[in-house]
Amino acid sequence: MEILAFGVQADEKPLLEKAFAGPHQVHCLDVFLTEDTARIAAGYEAISTSVNCGLGHRVLQTLATGGTQLVAQRSTGFNNIDLEVAERLGMTVARVSYYSPYSVAEFAWTLGMAVNRRIVRAATRTRDFDFRLDGLMGRDMHGRTAGVLGTGKIGEAFTRIARGFGMNLLGWDVAENPACVELGMKYVPKEQLLAESDLISLHVPLMPETQRLIDAAALRAMKDDAILVNSSRGGLIDTQALVTELREGRFTGVGLDVYEAEAGLFFLDKSLEAIEDDILARLVTFPNVLVTSHQAYYTEDAVGQIVDATVKNVLDYTAGRRSDNVLVPRS
């Protein structure tokens, strides 16, 4: 069977092609799946998508009309797929339910420490042979409080690193993680976590219940000198409200690897174009904000596991097997 893969990064392509060598063949495209590109998949029984591909009603209908029966998403998140429509069309949808949690947890800490210690500003200065220390003062993490919203596998990995810094640990989730409790984490209401934490990191999935979990009220509840990190999903933060708070001079730093309107921007080169997104354009001008392009998962280890799981999802589909990765089973 031939598989068409959308939104494939240059580093990812050889891994996919090598993994699929054998009974199945993959054709990799760097374009993302949209209403305009969905027709390309005509004749392909299976496609593979990335998290920034949009699989709404029209896209899924076009895919189904063209003969696509399997969508193998190369990510854990699946908020970009209308699962009810896929089921109604008789399509199978699978995702990657697990990959290295350390990739995201370590990157979240990279963002947090980069804004804390002004790494980007310092590196820019030294390129110009400006070695002054003015404006570069950070803070020790030791003895301060880390607030972790979402304590699953990634949140737990983040917590272990925080403990290594010697931090006090506060957690919030629908259920306590015994491993985090053993590390010394105290579970508290969200409002208390926001008010008491010096560094807050988001590790919850994006669902209707968590959409804009960090809204204007939540941002106002945080310390003026707090650090906020989001390496999960952009929709967890009300970005307009965040810009408003930043304009008031609040927060030591904000590290964002995701953005709520990143589709059509992230993973693409927009350097020669005018950015029409006024919120993002304003956000990146703040000296205490660092925005990266959804790369927290992007390590050899994690991407290798994502590719392996995607291959397994295709093999399970052709063999009629069902695994925990399946979101919509074969009808």
From TrEMBL:
This protein's UniProt keywords: NAD, Oxidoreductase
A Pfam family that the UniProt record links to this protein: 2-Hacid_dh
Keyword Oxidoreductase set for record: yes
Domain D-isomer specific 2-hydroxyacid dehydrogenase catalytic intervals: 8-327
UniProt keyword annotation of Oxidoreductase present: yes
Gene3D superfamilies to which the protein is assigned, alphabetical: NAD(P)-binding Rossmann-like Domain
GO-annotated molecular function: D-lactate dehydrogenase (NAD+) activity; NAD binding
PROSITE patterns hit by this protein: D_2_HYDROXYACID_DH_1, D_2_HYDROXYACID_DH_3
The D-isomer specific 2-hydroxyacid dehydrogenase NAD-binding domain, residue ranges: 112-296
InterPro entries reported for this sequence: D-isomer_2_OHA_DH_cat_dom, D-isomer_DH_CS, D-isomer_DH_CS1, D-isomer_DH_NAD-bd, D-LDH-like, NAD(P)-bd_dom_sf
Coiled coil stretches, renumbered: none
Domain of life: Bacteria
Similarity annotation: Belongs to the D-isomer specific 2-hydroxyacid dehydrogenase family.
Name of protein: Lactate dehydrogenase
